From TrEMBL:
Pfam families, per database record: ADH_N (PF08240), ADH_zinc_N_2 (PF13602)
Name the UniProt record assigns to this protein: NADP-dependent oxidoreductase
EC number: 1.-.-.-
Gene3D superfamilies: Medium-chain alcohol dehydrogenases, catalytic domain (3.90.180.10), NAD(P)-binding Rossmann-like Domain (3.40.50.720)
Enzyme class (EC, first level): oxidoreductase
Lineage: Bacteria, Pseudomonadati, Pseudomonadota, Betaproteobacteria, Burkholderiales
InterPro entries reported for this sequence: ADH-like_N (IPR013154), ER (IPR020843), GroES-like_sf (IPR011032), NAD(P)-bd_dom_sf (IPR036291), YIM1/Zinc_Alcohol_DH_Fams (IPR050700)
Amino acid sequence: MKAFVADRYERKSALRLADMPVPEMRDDEVLIEVHAAGVNQLDFKLRDGEFKLILPYRLPLILGHDVAGVVVKAGPRARKFKLGDEVYARVDDFRIGSFAEFVPVKESSLALKPRGLTMEEAASIPLVGLTAWQALVERAQLQQGQKVFIQAGSGGVGTFAIQLAKHLGASVATTTSAANVALVKSLGADVVVDYKTQDFEEVLRGYDLVLNSQDGKTLDKSLRVLKRGGKLISISGPPDPEFGAQINAPGFVRLVMRMLSAGVRRKARRRGLGYAFLFMKANGAQLHEIARLIEEGTIRPVIDKVFPFESTNEALAYVESGRAKGKVVIKVK
């Protein structure tokens, strides 16, 4: 099969288009013929080696975490899906590889593609949808009437999280540039801060939850917009000791995580706040719930560009540029 491969950890390096063997399936997996693959920041960060401690992959590595496609084969313990089913998934850690013609996915990580969506639209959803769901629903248990600050509202996670938070009945603030104000308001944002001309710390007060996706400076400022008892959930780090325990990291890796997050955890405690790092997990049951919301019209995908398979490196570079509004997708078939 054709696939885009990272041969080494190196910033901004091009992936190599290669002929690779179709991956061997495990008993609880199904083989997906890839029709479309979403592109995420996680893809270029893996290529750059930023997650070597958390996700020690062997190279060469086929990248790609989001997939929409068709079931073409099923393992003996995979009985929920039949051949020909149109499905979507965030593929499993250490089994990634959707920048390819075929990818195996654990049955429990898979869901039927939302009805009415194209393959490209479906491929844009899994990683950002699961990130938002696991942050807002699973971790924060966001309630009607609460106030949430979702950073970078025009990005992949932001466009989904705003819609999910509004569905949950929350009041939503976000940051974006002036060019994207209309977009984030159309998704449901109540308060929009132009990050180029305004400081969100001077505008926002008394929030119950912050979904942080930016740098350390923004992380510190985010603590100051929360009310006592509020929570800060960060998807951009630093990882905390609880996350180290979740992934059963070696002792020295847990120590590094403890040290990296010590500052923000200490500041949060002083203010009576909670801090948690979220690295989203594949979850087919949650994707099923997300599909239901999409089919009801509660949430819609937001796609900036669709690139042909042969332009995978260009798609990755576009996501890395930070200019994308919503998601970038690769059309494989």
